[in-house]
Amino acid sequence: MSRFSKWLIICVAIAMSPIAAWATSIENVRVWPSPESTRIVFDLSASPEYNYFTIFDGGPPRIVIDFHQSSNQVDLASVTSESLLLERLRPSTPPRDGTVRVVLDLSRAVEPTIFTLGPNDRYGHRLVVDIEGASVQPERQSRVVRTAEHAEFRPVMIAIDAGHGGQDPGSVGPAGTFEKNITLSVARRLAEKINADPAMSAVLTRTGDYGLSLPQRARVTRQARADLFVSLHADAFTSPQPRGASVWILSRRRSDTELGRALENKERLSEELYELQPTLTANNDDPFLTRALLDMRRDDSMQDGSLAAQVILEHLGRVTTLHRRDPQGASFAVLSNIGTPSILVELGFISNPQKEQLLRTARHQERLAEALYQGLREHFVRHPIDGTILANQRIRTHVVARGESLSTLAQRYNTTVQAIVQHNNLRGTTIRVGQELQIPTS
Length: 442
Ligand SMILES: [Zn+2]
Description:
- Helices cover 31% and strands 24% of the residues.
- The strands form 4 sheets. It has a 6-stranded mixed β-sheet, with helices on both faces.
- It contains 11 helices and 17 strands.
- The protein folds into 3 domains: 23-132, Immunoglobulin-like; 148-273 and 283-382, Zn-dependent exopeptidases (Aminopeptidase); 393-441, Membrane-bound Lytic Murein Transglycosylase D, Chain A (Roll).
- It has 442 residues and is α/β, with parallel strands linked by helices.
- Zinc ion binds at residues 163-164, 170, 179, 233, 235.
């Protein structure tokens, strides 16, 4: 072999194995659009050396990131973006050897926030790009049509919070089910039931698979002027034994049960993913006053949450096993930061193999949603809020005549079949001639 060809082989060998030569490799790219921003996460083999610049010169706006001493394992063109802000990712000619240049084509010129994160229990080294701005198509979240008859009274407003989402899958079941998908599915079913009831209205804190920080969940809740915040979860536990559903309310003390402490820790881990999101700002002019007001509001919220939790548990107990018959107290961040009466519902533990299978079925999700809806409605009938339709119902007695059905009665009294069934504790929708019914009207 000539000296020249030996040299050539070495050169080719180096050119063909650039991966080994550079300190950091890009191993994966994740795009998380949400109503207020888009987060793009580069998963890396090591902490990156990088710099970036933006090109907002009137042409197509873009962010250019140079990863130095790096190699790329990801086919950037195949990374799909569902974000309205990020049009696509693409590689570009690097300024020098050993640099990977990535271009983010944007739909609008927005200055990004770019930072690195170290490994945690779920991910390794990461470079995070946050771009502020609406990134998902706004969905019509709540019913806006109000019938004229109800104009003077308002529906009770419920904020339904599907736990986790986006880069935070929540717990993962033995068969690979993500908690975030179960919670969203049950949340949607529940919202549909509530919005079909003229006396109630629902808003979802998230309507798709994206992560939300606590302040964002709180903002949706406050903007909707919700009367109650219901956070849905289906957490795993360290052992596969726990099976039942449970309802949690805010407690000032840390939980005194082992399960409560484990769940508190788990939720805290989830929130860690949002470590760089701004936190709720309190009024700092008078720290003492702020503190006292917060405490007062919290006491009311805790009381209301606990009443709602009891009624909901009664209804949940009819469709699923309960882990505990009473509401459990814990200091979940999601409950303490909202400022609205709040409860956290564990729909069941997806760490339990049978429960996981059950939680995946439409039939069980539907039954859980129905139980939650019935429980919520009953709570606001038992503990009415001034000015709401449910607080101003009049009850009329009606004796069923030949040819009448629940739907004709509902129409005549301007109410719903659901409301009559509920009020009379009917098991089905058949009624008989001569039967006495209490009809709630407003
Ligand atoms: Zn959870």
